[in-house]
Amino acid sequence: MTNEAPQKIYLADYKPFPFLIDGVELNFDLAPRATRVKSKINFRPNPDSDSREFFLHGENLKLISAKIDGKEISPEVTDLGLTADVPDAPFVFEAVVEISPETNTALEGLYMSGGMYCTQCEAEGFRKITYYPDRPDVMAKFKVRIQGSESVLLSNGNPVEQGEGFAEWHDPWPKPAYLFALVAGNLVAHPDSFTTNSGKEVELNIYVRPGDEGKCAFGMGALKRSMTWDEEVYGREYDLDIFNIVAVDDFNMGAMENKGLNIFNSSCVLASPETATDANFERIEGIIAHEYFHNWTGNRITCRDWFQLCLKEGLTVFRDQQFTSDMRSRAVKRIDDVITLRARQFREDNGPLAHPVRPESFVEINNFYTATVYDKGAEIIGMLKRLVGDENYKRALDLYFERHDGEAATIEDWLKVFEDTTGRDLSQFALWYSQAGTPRLKVSEAFEDGTYILTFKQETPPTPGQPEKDPRVIPIAVGLLNPNGDEVRETCMLEMTEEEQSFRFSGLAAKPIPSILREFSAPVILERETTNAERAFLLAHDTDPFNKWEAGRALAKDTITRMLTDDSTVGSDLLDAISKVLRDDSLDPAFRALVLALPSADDIAQTLFDAGHTPDPSRIHTALETVALSYATHLQDVLPKIYADMHVDGPYSPDAEPAGKRALQGAVLSLLSRLDGGNQARAQFAAADNMTQQLQALACLLRIDRGREQLAAFEEQWKDDRLVMDKWFNLQTALAAPEAAVQTTEALTKHAAFDWKNPNRFRATLGGLTGNMAGFHSPDGSGYRLVADWLIKLDAANPQTTARMSTCFDSWRRYDADRQALIKAELSRILATPKLSRDTTEMVTRILGD
Ligand SMILES: [Zn+2]
Q1: Residues 760-770, buried b or exposed e (16+ Cβ, 10 A)?
Q2: Residue 140 has what DSSP assignment?
Q3: How far is the CA of 208 from the centre of ligand 1 (A)?
């Protein structure tokens, strides 16, 4: 049985909607299985369109009645929407529909989570609420009235009237339907307020379920810091009387920037020292900032169509990265971001799912909320800023806000403000948006008569649908060190535009050691013949923190890959270099923790594959364990002292400094556990008064195949806390020994608390396994089978999360023929499932390729 080929949508086919909207009134009469939605929409012909075809999107709706200018009509209704004859003049469309939030398990549109009503409309969820032109370029002012028995009834904009069983909200800012939101529940508020730059008083609330009130203070602080930062750095003020955040347990994404009413996955907003780790706190701060920043980059200026998704997401990710850099350590933030970029985006860009930052076509837009659109989209903004300079960047952004406020814009509009500000021609730079694939940058060098010449050659491998690529503009930040370790040339920005290009540095006394691609100035793969002695030199002397870390990372990767290809052992060059960094008290503990961390198994697998080898997941696992044990043995005299030195006195604080100390302490504990059988970890677990240290200790024990007792104690302590229990599920599947991982996961899916319809729990459990490379790629195919079984089951309930999770198979071509055959069989089995969703069909088809 095969599925009907889903229809593709193309960027080139864009046409404006034939009508404009002068106002929308919505009336919700809430009931779990029979919510009535009345709509009244004022349309008028769009002078920019020559069509008068009236089609409104609508899915899973029961149409009760429809009227045009007060007269009942009988429109033509299909699974996708409604068509009607309309006058060639302004008219009023009214409809009454019935929907069933309680049975909506896809979590798109209006649905229920833990007894409360909530919505998710991006990208195309509004069409599951009522008939409407559900596209981002149709912007309108909404008036919403909600009738329900819940104590809290919320929508976008400002509250205008509230009473027993009803509330009315008016949003004065025109917006597309994907930014619509509604929440109704018996919730409690964590209230606060903020005074904007111009003296406007804004009421702030974080709404949560009763019992979670104690987990809101940090999120509220993060919101206020974000509001201040956006005023100071981008000159952007908030524009409503009220800003609400609501925490929801069942949510496909991290959070959603609905105008004035952000809806958050509870894991991305709730935090207390006892229940959230340092990493959770940092992520929450970043996501709250991200969603808040969308108020200008996304809401006030939105996207013309979904192909322009990177216009709002790339820019807003870049802005939240800048914010976190300012709140915490710029160096550590950059390294963290590059680790994520390489793990997610480079993997995507080098596999069957590679697509341009602005795709040319899609079947299901939900499948394009990807690392490429978000993270590479943000890298493009960073490159643009490096190329034009900070001052011009600021001027261009001011122009962008001034020129496009209230509009649905395109990438062309975005680049035009930079061209108009600087006079530069950005047509070649625009290739970053249209060409997929990660460029390889080969470097060669020469030194003669005091002149050092760096020659770069760029090449981007073919990607699906794009066999040939043109050379891109690549900003390459370079500094030079002399053999004593002193910097003889400060960082300069080389601008590469040709396929091959040389740059000269004259007046040098000796051949310098280059530090190339400082601060990771472009999302490329640098290929340069070098020695481990030079890597150790840069790790010791580079003034650029990113490249300093990068040198250590390259040294570790070279060691591990050579262990796997030439059976070599862990050399003293790596061990001595790591030891020096670890003992250097002048370095930030968070930075030292990053240097101590080993590259991921996935990173090693991709590196081996790129070098023409077939990676063996279980051998990679063994090699990583061997290096960790070598670190532990080599550093054993210093580990206990550093562990003690990193102790933080006083009450827990999630700030960067104490968090950095705990990060280094945790990295040290992981090594110590390999020597002391877990004694120190057991002590830390018993004494921990915060989740960071409790979880670190438990992870250390599981990594050495101990900790059964602690696992049981942890479950007993936290069985009533949903978010902490996600960690409990995840840790076991992610850290299980390769031969036990599938069995452990299978057992956990039978646990009473495994609620598979909850995306957080599903991702924590199955995602832990797929991230456990040697376990997931078990040679008998049991890992693939288990994951495929669950994806088939989940697809019927929640296509969006299923499609996203199916990307765990995207690296299948890396592996040996047996594994490839096993994976292909599972992918084919998924594809043959009757009634498989459009989301999953598209994703699995792309992963399989030709
Ligand atoms: Zn976003």
Answers
A1: bbbbbbbbbbb
A2: B
A3: 22
**At 298, is the secondary structure helix, strand, or coil?**
coil
Cα 590 to Cα 52, 353, 593, 803, distances in angstroms: 60, 34, 5, 35
Residues whose CB falls within 8 Å of the CB of residue 771, separated by 6 or more in sequence, listed in order = 734
> Which pLDDT score, from 0 to 100, does residue 740 have?
98
Distance 188 CA to ligand 1 centre (A): 26
Note whether 684 and 673 are within 8 A (CB).
Answer: no
- Clarify whether 291 is annotated catalytic: yes
Centroid of ligand 1 to alpha carbon of 125 (angstroms): 16
CB-based contact 426:495 (threshold 8 Å) = no
pLDDT for position 3: 44
Whole-angstrom distance, CA of residue 823 vs CA of residue 182: 41
Name residues with Cβ closer than 5 Å to ligand 1, which is an ion: 313, 316
CA-wise closest residue to 662 among 647, 675, 677: 647
CA of 544 to the centre of ligand 1 (A): 30
Ligand 1: distance of its center to the CA of 182 in Å? 19
Nearest residue to 427 (alpha-carbon basis) of 469, 376, 473? 473
Reported as a single tens digit per residue, the pLDDT across 492-539 is 999 999 999 999 999 999 999 999 999 999 999 999 999 999 999 999
Instruction: Judge whether residue 154 has pLDDT over 90.
Output: yes
Q: Which of 59, 150, 257, 291 is catalytic?
A: 291
pLDDT digits (tens, 9 = 90+) for 43-53: 999 999 999 99
Tokens encoding 69: 């200018």
Q: What percent of the chain has pLDDT over 70?
A: 99
pLDDT of 262-276, one tens digit each? 999 999 999 999 999
